[in-house]
Design a protein that fits this description.
It comes from Archangium lansingense. The chain is an alpha+beta fold. It has 17 helices and twelve strands. It binds protoporphyrin IX containing FE (HEM).
């Protein structure tokens, strides 16, 4: 049979039937590039738990070196591209700054911005929910975390897309490479300005806490702060946009679920967890085997790129009963949408809070959503999955 192509339009539109096929032969090669897909919950967790066998350090090489002269690999030396023990040290350092306090400081702003965006949606006949809500809320949050002036918020999405292109190693024409290098150095220059400012005039914010952070006598260097800031942008923006869009799309398709959640807002966190499970914003993440590894009866060769199929693991019927259904009463919290093990998403509590408060503000003002007719256009990315636009009409409460 032809290998499954995880970039094909059919897969992007609805990966669930492909995942069922993958789990029936749980280690198999897929397109593009003959990636080895690991699709069962147990096997994906095993790979996440064993960085000695499945390394993240390939990110350090995963970009064209000549593209990056003078700007450096934007993600390579961030948490996402390190294995223990370097990862452990860096995670301890940034965790010193990225705390409950950091998240709590954002709560009032998130509520205010979400309320304003929801009011704005109701003033219009039809909106693209992505542009009207799902993007500006996380852009506000990431902009605040990075200490950027509000005028820079609209540029964050473009920066994030461009940085992802840089680490995706595809053939690009020279003008495009020149453009990507320019935008990357622009983003890094803004971060450098923030770092210098917070060193001189510390405030109550993440960047000030980061430049002051010290673990076992070692503080963080400027290039490490830049790498971390880049990981925050790439890890925290697009993922949260997709989570918000997927939730509202599901509520448009299942108004009875929305009615239940509106009547009992305490169900909102359960709704968010189910959407994370069913429509995982990050459908897969890549590792490289460091040696030959036997998994599920299959021998994976050494130095093979491997896709940990998070979206498939989250629908594994061995772990989740009625795996393809949204069940608000589900007790198990075993979805791995935020990863697992040492790289478990640092922003998970923030993403959950952002979604809960954002949706509380939205659902208290809107009693329903009607999707505009027509096919949805899905984004084009190997790991992230979400609609590019979500045209809809909101029905006021
Ligand atoms: C790591 C998902 C939001 C920052 C990860 C990983 C996943 C993930 C799956 C692990 C990647 C791997 O092991 O290869 C998500 C999802 C989100 C979300 C689904 C939203 C719904 C955020 C936010 C932030 C953030 C809001 C920060 C503002 C990070 C960072 C890492 C990470 C820094 C790297 C952690 C490490 O390597 O130790 N995320 N994320 N994420 N995420 Fe998130």
């Amino acid at each position: 049979m032809k290998p499954i192509d995880v970039m094909s339009p059919e897969f992007r539109a609805d990966p669930a039937p492909f995942y069922a096929r993958l789990r029936s032969e749980p280690i198999q090669q897929v397109e593009p590039g003959g990636l080895w897909a690991i699709s069962r919950h147990e096997d994906v967790q095993f790979a996440f738990k064993n960085p000695k066998l499945f390394t993240s350090t390939f990110v350090q090489q995963a970009s064209n070196p000549e593209w990056l002269e003078g700007v450096g690999n934007p993600l390579g030396y961030s948490l996402l591209g390190l294995d223990p023990p370097q990862h452990t040290q860096m995670r301890a350092l940034v965790s010193h700054a990225f705390t409950h306090k950091t998240i709590a400081r954002l709560e009032t702003g998130i509520r205010r911005v979400a309320g304003e965006l929801a009011e704005n949606i109701l003033r219009q006949k039809e909106v693209d929910f992505v542009q009207a809500f799902a993007l500006p809320l996380p852009a506000f949050v990431i902009g605040e975390l990075l200490g950027f002036a509000p005028e820079l918020r609209p540029r964050l999405k473009q920066w994030s897309d461009d940085i992802v292109s840089i680490v995706s190693v595809v053939q690009e024409p020279p003008e495009r490479i020149a453009y990507l290098r320019r935008t990357l150095s622009e983003f890094q220059d803004f971060l450098r300005e923030v770092i210098a400012d917070r060193r001189a005039r510390p405030r109550e914010d993440l960047m000030s806490d980061l430049v002051r952070a010290e673990v076992e006598g070692r503080s963080i260097t400027e290039s490490e702060v830049i790498a971390f800031g880049t990981a925050l942008l790439v890890g925290g923006l697009e993922t949260t946009i997709h989570l918000l869009s997927h939730t509202v799309r599901r509520m448009a398709l299942a108004p009875e679920v929305l009615a239940r959640v509106r009547a009992e807002p305490a169900l909102l966190p359960a709704l968010v967890e189910e959407v994370l499970r069913l429509d995982s914003p990050l459908q897969l993440t890549v590792r490289l085997t460091t040696q030959e590894v036997e998994l599920g009866g299959v021998k994976l060769p050494a130095y093979a790129p491997v896709a940990l199929m998070v979206g498939s693991a989250n629908r594994d019927e061995r772990v989740f009963e009625r795996a393809d259904e949204l069940v608000l009463e589900r007790r198990t919290q075993q979805h791995i949408s935020f990863g697992y093990g040492v790289h478990f998403c640092l922003g998970a509590p923030l993403a959950r809070m952002e979604a809960r408060i954002g949706l509380e503000e939205l659902f208290s003002r809107c009693q329903g959503f009607v999707l505009a007719p027509g096919e949805l256009k899905w984004n084009y990315s190997i790991g992230l999955r979400g609609p590019v636009a979500l045209p809809l009409r909101a029905i006021p409460a």
